[in-house]
Amino acid sequence: DTGVSQNPRHKITKRGQNVTFRCDPISEHNRLYWYRQTLGQGPEFLTYFQNEAQLEKSRLLSDRFSAERPKGSFSTLEIQRTEQGDSAMYLCASSLSSGAETQYFGPGTRLLVL
Amino acid sequence: QKEVEQDPGPLSVPEGAIVSLNCTYSNSAFQYFMWYRQYSRKGPELLMYTYSSGNKEDGRFTAQVDKSSKYISLFIRDSQPSDSATYLCSVEDSNYQLIWGAGTKLIIKP
């Protein structure tokens, strides 16, 4: 399967713990995006990378969130000191730089903070 | 006002019916318009994208953009129970970011 993959698929954690998610994009895609989605809402943009450079970060993104894409391939999203409000589906998508409109999504990581 | 508005539904139709899903948007500068399908507990799947005004057809799906009224539509012909999902519209802004509607839940009754 050459689509976008995300791990883990599900994560349950206690409030205050740190969590890290991984995204492996489609291999030839140099753009990688992170979104958060809650029930009944469309995806909410968090941040995106062009190769290894983080080009944009949502103003809504707390300092507890950090993302990396060290070699321009896979990416990680870390949430520090998780809060119950962080419970959501975290989606990763990738695209070619010339085709931001054609983003392909992974299956998501569903996070539950107790 | 949200930049992209979409009726959350649910929209329930019998199998075989023609389905019409719609969104409105606020910024006339938007040029790319996308429709995604999302099954429960899965990531969104790109169905179609359209540049500027006009129609685009792919099998049973037709996307339509009317820039004069800032209105985008997705039509599904011969709807199947497997089409039951949430349909999300999105537009691309000037920073190449996607702005999303909240999604319309579609139910096709056998």
Describe the secondary structure blueprint for this structure.
The complex is a heterodimer of chains A (114) and B (110).
Chain A: E1 5-7, E2 10-13, E3 19-24, E4 31-37, E5 44-50, E6 53-57, E7 65-68, E8 75-79, E9 88-95, E10 104-105, E11 109-113
Parallel strand pairs in A: 2-11
Antiparallel strand pairs in A: 1-3, 3-8, 4-5, 4-9, 5-6, 7-8, 9-10, 9-11
Chain B: E1 4-6, E2 11-14, E3 19-25, E4 32-38, E5 45-51, E6 54-58, E7 61-66, E8 71-76, E9 85-92, E10 98-100, E11 104-109
Parallel strand pairs in B: 2-11
Antiparallel strand pairs in B: 1-3, 3-8, 4-5, 4-9, 6-7, 7-8, 9-10, 9-11
Describe, in plain words, how this protein is organized in 3D:
Chain A is mostly beta strands and 114 residues long. Chain A has strands at residues 5-7, 10-13, 19-24, 31-37, 44-50, 53-57, 65-68, 75-79, 88-95, 104-105, 109-113. In chain A, 0% of the residues lie in helices and 49% in strands. In chain A, the strands form 2 sheets. In chain A, strands 2, 4, 5, 6, 9, 10 and 11 form a 7-stranded mixed β-sheet that branches. The mean pLDDT of chain B is 93. The interface between A and B is medium-sized, with 23 and 24 residues.
Q: What is shown here, in short?
A:
With 114 residues, chain A is mainly β. Helices cover 0% and strands 49% of the residues of chain A.
Morphology call of chain B: globular
Number of distinct beta strands of chain B: 11
Gyration radius of chain B, rounded: 13 Å
Overall residue-averaged pLDDT value of chain B: 93
The level of helicity of chain A is under 10%
Count of DSSP H/I helices of chain A:
0
Low-confidence stretches of chain B: none
Largest interface: A-B, 23 and 24 residues
Portion of residues within helices of chain B: under 10%
Major sheet characteristics of chain B: 6 strands, mixed
Mean pLDDT of chain A: 92
Class of secondary structure makeup of chain B? mainly beta
